[in-house]
Amino acid sequence: MDSSKNAVFDAVVIGGGIAGLQSALDLAGQGYKTAVVEKDASIGGKMIRLSKVFPTLDCASCITTPKMAAAAHHENITLYTWCDVQRVEKDATGVSVSMIQRPRYVDIDKCIGCRKCEYNCPVLVPDTEQGGFSGRKAIRIPFSNAIPQKALLDVENCMLCGKCADVCPTKAIRYDQKPEPRRIAAKTAILATGYELSSVTGKPQYGNGDIPNVIDSLQMERLLAPHGPYGRVLRPSDGMIPDSIAYVQCAGSRDASMGVSYCSRFCCMYAVKQAMLLSGSLPLADITIYYMDIRAFGKNYEQFYQNAKAMGIEFVKAKVASLDAGQGGAVTVRYEDQTGEGATSRDHDLVVLSMGVLPGFAPGGVCPVGLGPDGFIQSVLPKLSPSVTDLEGVFVAGVAAGPKDIVDTITEAGAAAMQAAKYLTALSGKAPGAANKESSHE
Amino acid sequence: MSEPQRAKAPDAGEQAKVGVYICYCGGNISDHVDVEKVRERMETVPGVAVARTNMFMCSDPGQELIMEDLRQGRINRVVVASCAPSLHESTFRSAIARAGGNPYQYEHANIREQVSWVHHGQAATDKASRLIAAATGKARTLTPLEPLRVTARRHAVVIGGGIAGMRAALDLADMGVRVALVEKTPYLGGGVSRLVRLAPTGEDAAHLVTTLARRILEHPGITVHAGSAVTTFGGYVGNFTLGVSPVPGACAPAGETWPGGYVPGKGVLVPPSPDGGAITLETGVVVLATGFASYIPRPGEYGFGENAEVVTLPDLIQKIGGLEGQRGGTLVIDGRPIRSMALIHCVGSRQIPGIHEEDANGHLNEHCSRVCCTSAINTANAIREACPQTSVYELYRDIRTYGRGQEELYAKASGNRVVFMRFGADQAPVVQRGAPGSGHPLKVTVTDQLTFGEELEVPVDLVVLATGMEPGPVADLVEMLKLPVGADRFLLETHPKLRPVELPIAGIFLAGTCQAPMDAGETCNAASAAAVKAVSLLSKGYVELDPFVAEVDVRRCTGTGACVQACLNPGAIALETMDIDGRPVTRARVTPALCLGCGACVAVCPENAIDINGWTLAQYEAMVDMIVSDAVCQDSGAVPETVGA
Amino acid sequence: MGSQTGATAQDKILLLATESCAYPGADSVGQAHASYPANVYVLKVKAPVLFPEKFYLDCFRKGIGGIIIMSCGEECPYEGAYKAMAKRLDRVYELMKEEGLDIRRLRLTAICTVCNRAFLNEVNQMNQIVHELSPPVQAP
Lengths: 442, 645, 140
Ligand SMILES: Cc1cc2nc3c(=O)[nH]c(=O)nc-3n(C[C@H](O)[C@H](O)[C@H](O)COP(=O)(O)OP(=O)(O)OC[C@H]3O[C@@H](n4cnc5c(N)ncnc54)[C@H](O)[C@@H]3O)c2cc1C
Ligand SMILES: Cc1cc2nc3c(=O)[nH]c(=O)nc-3n(C[C@H](O)[C@H](O)[C@H](O)COP(=O)(O)OP(=O)(O)OC[C@H]3O[C@@H](n4cnc5c(N)ncnc54)[C@H](O)[C@@H]3O)c2cc1C
Ligand code: SF4
Ligand code: SF4
Ligand code: SF4
Ligand code: SF4
Prior knowledge:
- By secondary structure, chain A is α/β, with parallel strands linked by helices.
- Helices cover 22% and strands 26% of the residues of chain A.
- In chain A, the strands form 7 sheets. In chain A, strands 16-22-17-18-19-20-21 form a 7-stranded mixed beta sheet. A 5-stranded parallel beta sheet of chain A has the order 6-3-2-14-24, covered by helices on one side.
- Chain A starts with 5 loop residues before the first strand and ends with a helix.
- Chain B is built from 15 helices and 35 strands.
- In chain B, the strands form 12 sheets. Chain B has a 5-stranded parallel beta sheet with strand order 11-7-6-17-30, covered by helices on one side.
- In chain B, helix 2 packs across helix 3.
- The longest helix of chain C is centred in the middle third of the chain and has 18 residues, at 81-98.
- Chain C is globular.
- With 140 residues, chain C is an alpha/beta fold.
- Chains in contact: A-B, A-C, B-C.
- At the A-B interface, helix 2, helix 7, helix 8 and helix 9 of A face helix 3, helix 6, helix 7, helix 10 and helix 12 of B.
- The structure holds flavin-adenine dinucleotide (2 copies) and iron/sulfur cluster (4 copies).
- The site of one flavin-adenine dinucleotide has 39 residues of chain A, from helix 1, strand 15, helix 5, helix 6 and helix 8.
- One iron/sulfur cluster binds next to strand 17 and helix 6 of chain A.
């Protein structure tokens, strides 16, 4: 974690989600010195925030933390968290990344992650890491399995009472910490900046976010997580155990009028997954998925979908037209039923929106890499080498190059590391194949 | 061939001197555990030479305590009692190494996450004492270990010359790894050679295949063994031996030119292997890229085999090619004008037990073949654009245009007035001869869910079955290499997320559609991901494996072979005849490079002759003894002791 | 807080926790500061398939009151180990019956890295069982 102001690496990976971590591990495993630059206070990206993952239903933390820890402990990997990338420049000598490391107001070399500060801080604010459903302190470890396990103080809410500084056993609190400009030079870069879900605000058909008990799928992931905000699935508005839960698929995808004309690719599968998890934790609840097509295309995905059907989860082929607040906290789903009834409606206790997937990073003004019409980073060799971009020596992996589930993301991350390693080999003068010429006489 | 070597023999004779270091963790531990009391107790434990405490053991001064004691020879085993081992075990192990000790003579006691944060008061102090005493009990018998080193040949064998095999071979060779590419046909290209324009981006299949094949054939680091197959296999990671022999009858028809000539439907013809006959390849890693087979419909399935007008999608793609000369008017195939055609999706895919019929071997293809929706729509678009007089109906279950640029093709198909109809899994469309006088040889009847379940009859001149992908015929390789196969019969990775291109057998990797259906781009990603794992493995010239593997005490072993039966990784332990005290005897022997270290053999040995290094049964027993012993502390609590120690 | 009041030398509970799942799971309970009885001792194992029948019986003889094998279940990194071990446990149960040991003293379960609730449930249930039953061996 030593991160001096100007540092030189073989490779820099931007984004510390599962894509970035896998790329970094695959480069570091070959001996390349690799930096990972992450804008968040922890590495792990979206995956570490999920509950369980399709199609194996293994716990997300159990398969993400080993990779996070492996990256954090790797002698060839340096992590830079809590960083704003200002510019990524590419010239003949390589890639240079200028960034600003935001202050944590904690000396991370001293902090031992004991949380005494957190327990003693009097300020409680909603915790976005728990879907906003529970509270967190102004100073806290970002979330239970965050890496690094270091405290983070949020100045917006801190009232400078000094309690954390008093109780910290290592005297790690630094109220006067300043943003630190940093610069990284490397020979090659991998962009692994992932995604964000589109917002329900500005979507009047879904109530602009004003209808109680309409949540997005990432919030449902938190409700389902064993270490989630309530520890079980409750309806946010009144804490009721929901009897009827509905999923609205393609909520903002496959519809140019809602800004996302493409398919977001993993929402069908996570809806099926969440439905299965819900029917496990709420065996009496009815679960309905309103969908256009179920896109269960990956290895063992179709089998997973058929299992969900066999478990009694109801799949309704329909495009949902609108949502309204119903009686007693219910949500009214209005839809066009394609198998008979025509326009109709149904009430549910809780509605989950499978929102569209948007690029996590808008390179405009920061990095001159080419984008596709969908706003994701463009691949110039989509068949032979999908991680190659139009900037020589700069590669792309994971959802940064278009929506992808974890399996496809991890595979692409390995591929990006492969292409970056080849680029490094070619640069180092050992021209491709040179090493073989000598040995091919054998 | 190199045998894994253990660098140092365990110095069993050496007297154990355990150093115990207990952390306050700035109050995190010491607020609940009386750390000084625990230290006093530890000083009385047999084998403990020194016991010390520190405010932060992980700090430099904390680590220095350990290093100084080691350097002074006061201790030769280390126990640190602090936070969870996931946080700092590696810190302390490397401190030991820096001080010249063996990092494996270390045991960790977790007294924060598993004591001070979950228990309080006297109970916490007592549990910490017992846990640390247990750790010393194990530490006393820890022998020095070294990571196992297996020298690895910087050479790879890639099996399969489709785009997966070619991509992996090029990536490996560009990194300076010598590659032998074994392809059973005389051509490079595999399934892509049977395509024309690839969805969704429109690349020319011939161009893709020739680009890769040319580079392969020109690459000095790659030898192509075309028309050949792997016939024997042995060895372990870093040191595999494969026998490769020509496939009888696998040669190109006379007249096809080589090298580098592209034959549509087949690929790029490769000059015959210089060696001609059977050869032996010695290699460090193996990449499997054996690809897929297209599903062949059963006779009668949707009228296939019974009506000449029913064809598969791969056949249609080859028949119409680039639709040269078909501009305007009606599509013409084999001289027959096609005014109306139906494309039926999911043929031989997404089969459901109870609804679909099993094949002759009792198999159902429950998987989705992933590429056929997009490929069918791509083909429909091409036909509608070139031949606007030909009506195209697509009969589907779900449209799975999931990937980048694919939904756009689907939208375009609607614009091109391709007619979509949706059927349920249990309401498959029926293909029959058309009514005489209808002017069309066939009719397709479908219950269309998009029009509220109306039964529609579509007269057509051609029915195209979008047949899916099945695993290729690799039973021989599965048998020879002991490859795991999933319920879907595709090759099965270790874990789809943790190790998606690896197998439980170290040194063998999966690339492309031998693992699951994928499109061309996904296939190349998988191949590069396999290549990067292989390159990392070969980057040092040797493979370093955990030393935590089974070891047989040949003096105790009586050769019952119970361990061989129990072993989870066949081949890791075997009976062999060896010479002991001048007599030939049968004893078990472990091949460390193959051992998983799970201990399945340990449990079944009637003679207690096997143990996992670093995790021996005796060490566990010692730990249990210390936990139950009242030597370091009497139990606490309101109720007094009922039994003495 | 737990039931360490009334603890005796006989009622210690051993958790054999796999290094890839249940051991980090126990740490996660600690991170949440969720307390449980202090008679519970966690031993890290690569795969519990290592232990022969005798190991369990010896533990009870030594005075361990209960053993919970916390494995990875389906996520076990060693293919076939889980099945092999489940089979072994059947034999251990037979032997326990022969020795007059209540078979509820030994349990096999799967615990993930963040299954705090399941972990606490298991531990509390085993404590109840151990407290309900007499110590496995008589005092010498
Ligand atoms: C509700 C839901 C459930 C899901 N469930 C599953 C499932 O069960 N199984 C499955 O396979 N997939 C699932 N997915 C998909 C999964 O989340 C993605 O496949 C995966 O997270 C993609 O990883 P990534 O690294 O590409 O992107 P991300 O996880 O988004 O990581 C990108 C990282 O880059 C960082 N970053 C972004 N911009 C910058 C910048 N400018 N500078 C520095 N850092 C930056 C981000 O902070 C983040 O850490 C689910 C998705 C959702 C929404
Ligand atoms: C109908 C259809 C349409 C498609 N359309 C598209 C499309 O539009 N766009 C797209 O991107 N993808 C498309 N695909 C997918 C594409 O064909 C595959 O992604 C690609 O062919 C997979 O390559 P591969 O190397 O994994 O396997 P393959 O192409 O099957 O190659 C495997 C190679 O291994 C050889 N082999 C097999 N067994 C052995 C052995 N034992 N020893 C030695 N050699 C062996 C085979 O002879 C073959 O050459 C389509 C597939 C189908 C079926
Ligand atoms: S109290 Fe200090 S050491 Fe503990 S987590 Fe907070 S900042 Fe870190
Ligand atoms: S100073 Fe701020 S962060 Fe620290 S305890 Fe007070 S309010 Fe919380
Ligand atoms: S994955 Fe499913 S829900 Fe998501 S956009 Fe695609 S079709 Fe719609
Ligand atoms: S890709 Fe489409 S046609 Fe092919 S099996 Fe899947 S759903 Fe059926």
